[in-house]
Amino acid sequence: YNPAYCGSERMYKVDLGAQSTYSYKPSLFLDSHFSMEIPWEIGITSWGAGVKVSNQYQGSGLLNIASISPMISMGLQLYKNNNVRSFLQVGIEFNTFSTKTNFEKMVLTDQLDPYYGLYKDFSEELSYFATDNVWTFDMGVGIYGQTDIRNHRLPSVIRYGFSIFHVTSDKEKSFYSEEESNIYMPSFYNRRFCANVEYVQPIEIGRGKNVFLGGYGIYEFQGGMHDIQVGFNTAYKWFTLGVGAKVERYTPTYTLSN
Question: Residue range 167-179: average pLDDT?
């Protein structure tokens, strides 16, 4: 999600969602989210404000990751004439993460015996944990642009965007401690870069009847992982049909040496 999209549709929005995965396994994995956006205008500028709240409940509560992210964006019309209109918007979001571990549901190797199975209720390894809850703070930035080209009665639309997430999380606190102070470790969240472009071409097939043909491309990079997506779609009234392809490639960002 590009924070510059916040308020770009010029309407009030509320989104709710929940997803359960690995339902065939004994451990529950449940993701839920809520978001809302409010647009307004000041002079020649357009603004948007919103908030995202999410929660990842993993392993029936063994790990719980919650986050809250307020967002704000500002847009400005760059160019406008009878045939072309261009608009650009920038946005920023501030993220607060809580990563909590339930030690009561954790079983470590020193609690297990090859003959008796689980024979200890408590692991001595847990004494090395400084906390069961790690708080981290982060931010993301993005730009979003749209250009409408009116060749006929209906305009063609080009949308594009670029965003960077986890801008400030180059180091994070870990759960472990050493000499009564938290160890700092490489970030749980590597910086993520995302670029996208979309083209929509309307075609009039009758009076008041339009078919929309479109294509899109998305490129993401995070921690050595390259993700490329391309797709095409067509829409008529409430019906949309699309096809897409996705390619992933991992390039190690580090080398091992003796």
Answer: 58
pLDDT tens by residue, 219-232: 999 888 999 999 99
Structure confidence by residue, pLDDT tens digits, 241-256: 999 999 999 887 655 4
Could you identify the residue written with the tokens 């944990």?
129
Closest CA to 245 of 230, 223, 255, 256: 230
- Would you tell me how many other CB atoms lie within 10 Å of the CB of residue 109? 7
Is the confidence at residue 177, as pLDDT, over 90?
no
Spatial separation of the C-alpha atoms in residues 178 and 133, rounded to whole Å:
17
The DSSP code sequence of 157-202 is EEEEEEEEESSS-SEEEEEEEETTEEEEEE-SS--EEEEEEEEEEE
pTM: 0.75
Rounded to whole angstroms, the Cα distance separating 48 from 245 reads 32
How far is residue 182's CA from residue 228's CA, in Å, rounded to a whole number? 37
Count of positions (residues) in the chain: 258
The pLDDT tens digits of the residues spanning 3-28 come to 999 988 889 999 999 988 877 777 77
Q: How far from the centroid of its chain's Cα atoms is residue 129's Cα?
A: 29
Looking at per-residue confidence, does 137 or 144 come out higher? 144
